[in-house]
Amino acid sequence: MAPLSTRLLIQRGRPKSDRLGKIRDLDLSGLNLVSEDLDLKLLGRLKQLQELDLSNNQLETLPADLGLPHLHVLHCANNQLSDVTPLCQFPQLEELSLEGNPFLTVSDSLKVTFLLPELRKFNGKDASTTRSKAENLNRELTTRVAAHWKKFMATLSPEEQAKAQADFVKSAVRNVRYGPMSLSEFTQWRVRMISEELVASGGTHACEADTPEGPHKATATQEPRARLVALRRLGDAPLSLSPQKRVCTSPLAPVEGSLGGSDGSQLEPLHFLQCHSKNNSPSDLKTQLWACAFEPAWDEGQAGAASQTVATCGGEAVCVIDCQTGIVLHKYKVPGEEFFSVAWTALTVVTQAGHKKRWNVLAAAGLRGLVRLLHVQAGFCCGLIRGHKKAIATLCFSPTHETHLFTASYDKRIILWDIGTPNQDYEFQASHLLTLDTTSTPLRLCPVAPCPDAYLLAGCESGCCCWDVRLDQPQKRRVSEVEFVFSEGSEASGQRVDGLAFVNEDVVASKGSLGTICLWSWSQTWQGRGSQPTVAVVVLARLQWSPTILAYFSLSTCPDKGLVLCGDEQGNVWIYDVRPLLAQRSPPQAALQAPTQILKWPQPQALGQTVTKTMVNTVVANPTFTYLTALTDSNIVAIWRRGEP
């Protein structure tokens, strides 16, 4: 593309004029412009310009001073922008389009509302919703910064306070936290601004922010819409629960202590959401929810890193929820689809300028047999994988290869894909690596923890099987290497295994039916297999579970905490701390081991709506066991939090 010229601007400007100063509307879209092509001196002559279209170019940033004081409408869709702060030069901007910029996040959307006070329309929608969310976050951040100011200054003498004010900003940015990890860029940006304003005022703003607004009360008179399950929209207040209903234990088994560790903290119900309703109807208590998965932490390389953002699927929607606030951050819908499974992976992509960006991609699949690769932050599907003839029951990514995806279908096939990395248009082109044949429908997939590149476990309708998935082998279509037999108890040979997960590098938790969860050793079982196609597992312990004859209650594990989790038909969540069991060197006990704790479904009268019965079919916790998410057959996403001791 040749540099911008006066002639080009006159050709593309409206109204037609031979003077740049008369142009009010300028279309520079689709010219393959890069940021360096935006000639400040030339564009600065457009003194009356009110609308500018820069969409469908290759812009990575906007110059800091374009000199367009009267600009009211700006279109920058489908570029490579990664920073919105230069927009502050357009204080009169009323309409803005930034869709299709893959490196802009929800944090940037919130920043826009602070930078552009006159903005009415953002990405084709009313900007008031985004502004409301930003204002709610800002109020909480202001309160927390003010509290941090008092705590920071309380330890200093008057002389030290005057010198330490500059250090306060750094301390606030480092320590003040609120909202989901996906909004951390926005919250830190605002914390810095609020802290600098606080320092400039000498701390007087801290007193104003600390003024209480009075307690929030949720009664039938004051809150006529309060109910057990509230569809979380931006700006919704969290649903309050009666303190006496926060942690319930079951008479079915003794409670041996809280699960928060030695600090005495316990799990408390936090949010009950109805975000998958058909047509957003609050009366929809029938949509079945199937699976959930926590997003990889942005700082997962650091000790104690954990995400508080969870993806859930059910009906025609996939939702991404912040567990702390209960806000539905993103919602992706496909009319006519029913999503059965979701899985995350973290990719590293390189921009055209050579910058590395971390990108969390969400895979979702279900009834139509298609895998959709979702760019959650940008809100669009960037890849579609077709390979199964029937519905996809479950999927999972390899823990060692970020682009390797396993999909398991009702067509009795498991396929290993390499989704690759996106091209310059942020589109995926997946390649088919392996096909694994099963004798029955695969229900759960589990790469073998000590050797995930070599073997894959699957819980199926007719048992538990293992496949060799090494890519250096010539066969691209394979049958199972071995079937595992549970010689006694709930999982005899040929019976359904609908729960499967590794507790640590060696111990597997599996579930069939009739009230038992089995813990068995992978290494001991594999060493004793010989050349037999059927092998009895080496059982370490059996855990007491619900005696229900119903199936498809998926178990999960929290390896860092040594926990096994599973829901049941009564709405309970069974939690087992298996570390003491696994530490025993004696032979396994014949008696079933009781759960450490059972969380019971909160009483409906405490929450404002009658939901007389619900089944919890999926339970997942984040790695640090800070948040626990449970999905029900009555269209409810329940979130528990490990509270303060």
TrEMBL record:
Gene3D superfamilies: Ribonuclease Inhibitor, YVTN repeat-like/Quinoprotein amine dehydrogenase
InterPro entries: Leu-rich_rpt (IPR001611), Leu-rich_rpt_typical-subtyp (IPR003591), LRR_dom_sf (IPR032675), LRR_LRWD1_dom (IPR056363), LRWD1 (IPR052489), WD40/YVTN_repeat-like_dom_sf (IPR015943), WD40_repeat_CS (IPR019775), WD40_repeat_dom_sf (IPR036322)
Predominant subcellular localization, coarse grouping: nucleus
Any one GO CC term of the record: nuclear origin of replication recognition complex
SMART domains: LRR_TYP, WD40
Cytoplasm found in the keyword field: yes
Keyword terms: Centromere, Chromatin regulator, Chromosome, Cytoplasm, Cytoskeleton, DNA replication, Kinetochore, Leucine-rich repeat, Nucleus, Repeat, Telomere, WD repeat
Domain Leucine-rich repeat and WD repeat-containing protein 1 LRR as annotated: residue spans: 7-194
Example GO BP: DNA replication
Keyword Repeat found: yes
Subcellular location: Chromosome, Centromere, Kinetochore; Chromosome, Telomere; Cytoplasm, Cytoskeleton, Microtubule organizing center, Centrosome; Nucleus
Function as written in the Swiss-Prot or TrEMBL entry: Required for G1/S transition. Recruits and stabilizes the origin recognition complex (ORC) onto chromatin during G1 to establish pre-replication complex (preRC) and to heterochromatic sites in post-replicated cells. Binds a combination of DNA and histone methylation repressive marks on heterochromatin. Binds histone H3 and H4 trimethylation marks H3K9me3, H3K27me3 and H4K20me3 in a cooperative manner with DNA methylation. Required for silencing of major satellite repeats. May be important ORC2, ORC3 and ORC4 stability.
Quaternary data: Integral component of the ORC complex. Directly interacts with CDT1, GMNN and ORC2. Interacts with ORC2 only when non-ubiquitinated; this interaction prevents LRWD1 ubiquitination and degradation. Some of these interactions are regulated in a cell-cycle dependent manner. Interaction with ORC1 occurs predominantly during G1. Association with phosphorylated ORC1 during mitosis is not efficient. Interaction with CDT1 occurs during G1 phase, as well as during mitosis with phosphorylated CDT1. Interaction with GMNN occurs from G1/S to mitosis.
Protein name: Leucine-rich repeat and WD repeat-containing protein 1
